[in-house]
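It is worth pausing here to work through a concrete case rather than discussing structure prediction in the abstract. The textbook approach is simple: state the sequence, then state the predicted structure, then interpret. We follow exactly that order.
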Amino acid sequence: MVFPMVFLKIMDWVVYQILANSCYRAARKMRSYGFFVRNPSLKTSQQYPFFPSVTKCCLEGRGSQTLVCDVDGALLRSRSFFPYFMLVAFEGGSIFRAFLLLSSWPFLWFLDSELRLRVMIFISFCGLRIKDMQTVGRSVLPKFYLENINRQVYDIWGSTGSRVVFTGVPKVMVEGFLKEFLSANHVIGTELQTVGQYFTGFPSGCGFLVKSSALKEFFGEKKPDIGLGSSSLHDHHFLSMCKESYVVTEEDSKSSPSSVMTRNKYPKPLVFHDGRLAFFPTPSATLAMFLWLPLGIFLAIYRICIGIFLPYKMANLLGIWSGIDLKLKGEDINHHSESGNRRKGVLYVCSHRTLLDPVFLCTTLGRSLTAVTYSLSKTSEIIAPIRTVRLTRDRKKDGETMQRLLSEGDLVVCPEGTTCREPYLLRFSSLFAELADEIVPVAMYTHVSMFYGTTASGLKCLDPIFFLMNPRPSYHIHVLGKLPKELTCAGGRSCCEVANCIQRQLADALGFECTTLTRRDKYMMLAGNEGVVQNK
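Step two, the predicted structure:
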């Protein structure tokens, strides 16, 4: 008899919360949008903010003052936190969890803000490993947060001496970004309940954070100097507890030049990030992705097959017809031996964007090349349409291997040792400069609209598939021409000077920035390891 009684109580709660209570809230929401308002001027007066716009805030003399604000509705331009929960569900969970969250969206619209947040948290976090959430928070979410920061709010944020964030969203989703990128002093948010190494999907014992109560508990009788929030009535009590208060209206959050944070204004350069989704997953964009997925998988298999089984010219033609934006700039060199029967291959030095760099270089040049790589999954090695040779990270052995391969023919090398998605070039290994007299720098540029074809913490064997699943992936290849002899080791330059020279040439051709970061820096930052693919 116990189970039926518990079941009835649960059903009673569901009927009340989801049907009766939510229908009442939906009616109130429709009324607030003006469906039942006879006089249009009443709707305007109900939404008129009681505090001045954030554009009216003076930035001078704020160095010793304390600012309080929320992430949702203030720091970020996006008016909904759904896309960030989708990133957690897709990148930290699985595609099935992401589909469940998307399926719930039509019902979430009818719920009030707190109940909507509860449902999104439960779907995104129930059964999610703490380790997976930490990875997403460290390597995936910062990119999307930076792209959606409200620049006007950030200008005020940067002018103050102390910043405290109060937010109802899970603290684990925002704390790392706020402290690492924005130098927040304190982050107070909703704590989530955990069991062992997993989230339960429910808030901890203290429940959801109420900003006004949390602010009073944190500051006591003292009032913070500046408060920033949204123009909704929920934030007005919170803002009324500050000495000065400003609201971020919908007009302030629109994608205008004054509110969009450009890359050169980022508080910290974004060099590395991870995850498969290349777009901001709003409900409509996520729906478009799921509708495209079956066709995308078929298209990726088709593109892989034509690359493996067809001649280069035909593969180029059919690949372009399938939607690949493939462009070649510059011309391949006609290399001839200067001394009789002795001939040594040309070394093509490429910037590294995806695992397909050597493949697309071969197909555009129309001839076979051998690619050397530091880390390649067994699956990628098997399906590769060109010859690949794995290096060991032993400088002497790798040098001997590359010398042997150059004596057999032309060679492709990516001296960065790993891919980078952003407009930066990592430090070049100098080993290649010691081995060849004929060096040709090749600038690689890629662009995707739906899926990234690289990963640091996921399955690397799926990288080519994800890249080729994009509706119109771009590959622009610029062959810069043979490096003059006086700039090579044969001309008296050191191997480090040659490597740095080629790095600068490629950066200038691409409009990128040179860095001294390495593959080890990337993988330690994104995945917590050194990026070695096990031979399985």
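Step three, interpretation. The radius of gyration is 28 Å. Residues 2-32 form the longest helix (31 residues).
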